[in-house]
Amino acid sequence: MIRALVTVLVLALAAYGLYLLAGRPGDVALTVGLTTYKVKLVWAAVAVLVLVGVLMAVIGFLRWLLRSPANVAGFFRTRRRSKGFNAVTQGMIAVGSGDVRRAQRQASDAERILGSEPLALLLRAQASQLSGDRAGAEAAFRAMLSEAETKPLGLRGLFVEARRRGDAHAARQLAAEAVKTSPTLPWAGTALLEFQSIEKDWSGALSTLARNANHRLVDKETAKRHRAVLLTAQAIEQAERDRAGAKASVIEALKLAPGLVPAAVLAAKLLSEGNDIRKASKVLETAWRLQPHPDIAEAYTNVRLGDSARDRYARVQTLAAQMAGNPEAAIALARAALSARDFAVARSALSPLLASGATERVCLLMADIEEAEHGATGKVREWLSRAVRAPRDPVWTADGMVSDVWLPVSPVTGRIDAFEWKTPVERLGAPVVSYADDVLADVDEPEQPKLVEARAKPVEPPPPVVEKLVEPVAAVPPAPVEPAKVEPAKVEPAKIEHSKIEPAKIEVLAPEPAKPEPLKPPPRRPPPPMPVVPSHPVPDDPGTGEEEPSRVVRFPING
Question: According to the UniProt entry, which residue ranges have a biased composition of type Pro residues (predicted)?
Fold first, then answer.
């Protein structure tokens, strides 16, 4: 728009100038040899303008003619670059969609057209990684190190490849080089901090953390927490050889993170060794209110060495009162009461935990209480068996790994402050087994199919009583009876019927057990009445000459 206005303005000024010249009288004479040419002033001005325009046109044409080879080459070069960048675009799309063959083909075209163009090298590296060609990917990333603008990208790619093949030393060197090249790279600062923490280079890790905080790679709260963790780890390591330095480090850590359990426990230990019991107790109480933990309770119980069990019991009562209703407070109070042999308080402290579901520690503590109060009885074995199947208590857990003690760095990923006090993930949702004093589960509950099946198992009926009672009678050999002397007319029918009963017939007369209903134990049926039948000697039986005691045979009779 501005150029059009300028052009119109110039043309207007030229027309106005010609108008002024046309109004003035005069001629312009041009003498060439002996010939003189005269024209009016206005035409002379027009001729000059035309001549200048022609000269400008000729000069422009000559310039275009001279630049035409470069222009032609630039045209083809631009067209080639456009084709190469189009190959890069299509290749990146293929990498994102997982089309390995297309990605490799487009990467070859882009590298052939663009040469060492950063995007072409990146596409080559991505296509090689997608196809599993690690050597090709590393070659592409190494080619990026030659240019300053692509060096961070090359270091990042080589770092990833080094970690994939498990070369921690090479990965650490690449991370350190990336930090020197560009201190604002978040991945480089984080990786170097993790490697230094794994190697227990606490001084270097603190310096790297400070540099990351200065470049705002981490927020302030995270930086404070990580610094407290690193200072605590440093204090734990130097506690044996430099008590003063460890004490200074852990006190600084508590200022940054008052609820850090290992820092509070170590600080209380070092302060109590210096006979500063009041400050040690205050440190533990502050950490206890922020995060109740059994290590804090143990350190608070023994903050003053040489105290009696009653003194420790009184001290734990003060600590537990600050977090009334917390499971850790109840367990700590029960332990102290057990040491002081106050079994009633110990049981009352654990009763809410037993009502809500006793964990492994609670069951073991109840076993200790039973053994200390009543000795090794069946109750002790019962609580020990319950502890085997009870839900687990919280432990130090990080990245699926369980540790008995707190660690500043995760051994799996190298993350700082990864360990948390919580129940292990693999034990969450475990079926809870009901015991004799628990409420029985519903029979439709799918979590306990075996338990329900065992409880619904029908009770087998007792074996027939007749067999056991008849067997000893049959063992006594009767006196020999002469068949000729037995007269059928003189034998009583009732006595012959009972005396001729065989064991096989008695088993038939036994009642069949009723089939139990599914999932419901059948009621125990009382046995049928047992008639008492006196056994008399058979008529005309001479006997043994001695009076035998009467034998009684008991057996069920249907009808």
Answer: 519-537
What average pLDDT does range 213-239 have in this prediction? 94
Give CA angle at 527 (526, 530), nearest 5°: 135
CB 230 within 8 A of CB 213: no
Q: How does DSSP classify residue 167?
A: -
| d(C-alpha 467, C-alpha 481), whole Å | 25
**In whole angstroms, what is the distance from residue 269 CA to residue 107 CA?**
63
Residue type, 321: A
Nearest 5°: phi and psi at 80?
-70, -45
d(CA 16, CA 14): 5
Residue with tokens 């705002």: 216
Instruction: For residues 7 and 243, give the distance between their C-alpha atoms in angstroms, rounded to a whole number.
Output: 87
Q: Max alpha carbon distance in the chain (Å)? A: 199
**Average pLDDT of the chain to the nearest whole number:** 78
Q: Where are the alpha helices (DSSP H) in 150-241?
A: 151-164, 168-181, 186-198, 202-214, 220-238
Least reliable range by pLDDT among 318-327, 384-393, 480-489: 480-489
Share of the chain above pLDDT 70, in %: 75
**Any bridge partners for residue 35, and if so which?**
32
- How far is C-alpha 534 from the chain's CA centre? 80
* Long-range Cβ contact pairs of 543-551 (< 8 A, separation 24 or more): 543/479, 544/479, 551/473
Angle CA(296)–CA(300)–CA(306) in degrees, nearest 5?
Answer: 140
* Total-model pTM: 0.63
Going 128 to 134 to 136 to 138, the CA torsion angle's sign is positive
Q: Above 90 in pLDDT, residue 258?
A: yes
Long-range contacts made by residues 54-62, C-beta under 8 angstroms, separation at least 24? none
H/E run at residue 548? none
- Confidence band for 76, pLDDT divided at 50, 70 and 90: confident
Residues 71-82, mean pLDDT to the nearest whole number: 81
Q: What b/e readout covers 83-102, taking b as 16+ CB neighbours within 10 angstroms? A: ebbebbebbbebbeeebeeb
Rounded Cα distance between 108 and 102, Å, is: 10
Which of 129-133, 395-399, 418-422 is least confident? Answer: 129-133
Share of residues in the chain with pLDDT > 90 (%) = 41
- Type of residue found at 361: R
β-bridge mates for residue 420, sequence order:
397
Decide the pairing of beta strands 27-32 and 35-40: antiparallel
DSSP string across 472-523: HHHHSPPPP--GGG--GGGS-HHHHHHHT--HHHHHHHSPPPPPPPTTSPPP
The 3-state DSSP class for residue 533 equals: strand
Helices (H), 199-342: 202-214, 220-238, 243-256, 261-273, 277-290, 294-301, 309-322, 327-339
Q: For position 211, what pLDDT does the model report?
A: 94
Q: What angle do CA 469, 475, 476 make, to 5 degrees?
A: 110
Per-residue pLDDT tens digits for 12-26: 887 777 777 776 777
